[in-house]
Structure formats: structure tokens, C-alpha cells
Design goal:
Layout: H1 3-25, E1 35-41, H2 43-60, E2 64-70, H3 73-82, E3 87-90, E4 97-111, E5 122-124, E6 133-135, H4 141-153, E7 159-162, H5 166-174, E8 180-183, H6 188-192, E9 196-202, E10 207-214
Parallel strand pairs: 1-2, 1-3, 5-9, 6-7
Antiparallel strand pairs: 3-10, 4-8, 4-9, 4-10
């Protein structure tokens, strides 16, 4: 199985595991779980996870209507806290019940012709201060993480554009307008197609923790409701 496939399997198993836990909690009802379960996740995860997740839930719980939404991590956390969704895949979720899924290494992405002439396959993280980069605006979690790490190094990111949507960011990167920072899993299809290229970030490596969060407004046993 490829590395991307292993990541997908981890995501799907974790989410389905929560639904199975809910099923066991209402097992005394001796009925097949039915109703609606709402799950939200960032777009960088959604394109990989939605397909496998829908298929697995349909096989395991045919009576459940799975509602899938996408939003930035901060939005997903807000939807969880207000009860709009039951389960969320997020990068940060203060004040929410969470469990870790995996650690996500961030890499530098740029156009195939490498307009900044970086060369090689590794770039020191501090170079984000002089490479033209395209990042989401604060308080997006990715931007906060990068800003905080660069602050420790005594530099500031050379942000030439602030773009909050991943497809638009990647389109600009592919055209050579600037570089960006994302996880490899989010762009595996573009890398495999040879449309963009990547570099490992070093000194330090940038790591995000991916979390599985549950709603504070909907008890576990209420997720599967008729």
C-alpha cells in the first residue's frame, strides 16, 4: 500500500471507529443505527477522505445518512462547538474533545521550473523569509503555525499573496507566482502528475497534529438519531 493509501486508511478507520463506538453505546436498543451523522474536515483532507469514508460507512451502517462538509480547521471547530456537526477532522480544536490521528509533515511546494532557483530537494525553513510565498491569512491554523516557527528563527515570511482557498493557491503555485507550504498528502495528485515540485523543510521540520474532534453539544449516543 502506498504512503497516501495508508494515510487514507488511517483517517477512514478512525472516523468509522467513532461511529462504531456510538453504535455500541446504543446497543441496548437492539436496532440498526439510523439517522444523520454530520462530519466536517478541511479541504486538504476532504479530497482524500470523503470517498473512502462514504464507502465504508455505507457498508457498515446502511441506515445512516452521512452528511459531509468542508471548511478550514477554525470553522470546523466552531461548527463542533455549536452542534452543527457531530465529528470533525481538525488541526487544532481548543476546548473540544479530541484524539490524535497522525502527525502531518509540511513541505514546500513550487512550480516545476523552480523560479526562485532553490534546486536540490531540501530547503531550510528560514528561507521562507526570502522566498515569495502564498499563504492563508491569520487566524488560519497553517499561517499561525508558520508564523510562530519563523518567529523563533527571528524572521518573517515573505508573503506576496494571502489566499484562503487551497485550489487557488495551488493554481498560483503551478503558474510560478509563488511557493506555498502544505502537507504532501494534500497535493499528491499534483506531484505524481508532475505539475508542481516539492522540497523538504529543515531546521526545523514543520509538523502539524491532525486531530479527530467530537461535538460538545451532541452526546455520542445522540449522533445516530432517527
Amino acid at each position: 500500500m502506498s504512503e497516501a493509501g495508508k494515510v487514507l486508511e488511517t483517517y477512514a478507520r478512525s472516523v468509522v471507529g467513532l461511529v462504531e463506538k456510538a453504535q455500541s453505546e446504543i446497543g441496548s436498543l437492539k436496532a440498526e443505527p439510523r439517522g444523520r451523522v454530520a462530519i466536517a474536515m478541511p479541504p486538504s483532507i476532504g479530497w482524500m477522505l470523503t470517498g473512502p469514508l462514504v464507502v465504508r460507512c455505507r457498508e457498515a451502517f446502511p441506515g445512516i445518512l452521512l452528511h459531509v462538509a468542508e471548511g478550514f480547521s477554525g470553522h470546523v471547530a466552531e461548527w463542533l462547538s455549536t452542534g452543527r456537526v457531530d465529528i470533525g477532522v481538525v488541526y487544532q480544536a481548543p476546548r473540544l474533545q479530541t484524539e490524535p490521528l497522525l502527525s502531518d509533515e509540511l513541505i514546500l511546494l513550487g512550480a516545476v521550473d523552480d523560479p526562485a532557483g532553490l534546486g536540490g530537494d531540501r530547503v531550510p525553513t528560514k528561507r521562507l523569509a526570502d522566498i515569495p510565498v502564498i499563504l492563508p491569512a491569520r487566524p488560519h491554523g497553517l499561517r499561525v503555525l508558520i508564523d510562530n516557527e519563523l518567529e523563533k528563527l527571528g524572521v518573517v515570511a515573505n508573503v506576496v499573496f494571502e489566499v484562503d482557498t487551497m485550489p487557488s493557491t495551488l493554481s498560483l503555485v503551478e503558474r510560478g507566482v509563488g511557493y506555498t507550504v502544505l502537507s504532501e498528502g494534500a497535493v499528491k495528485h499534483l506531484l505524481n502528475a508532475g505539475r508542481i515540485r516539492s522540497w523538504s523543510l529543515t531546521e526545523p521540520t514543520l509538523i502539524r497534529e491532525l486531530l479527530l474532534a467530537t461535538s460538545t453539544q451532541r452526546p455520542m449516543s445522540a449522533w445516530l438519531r432517527s
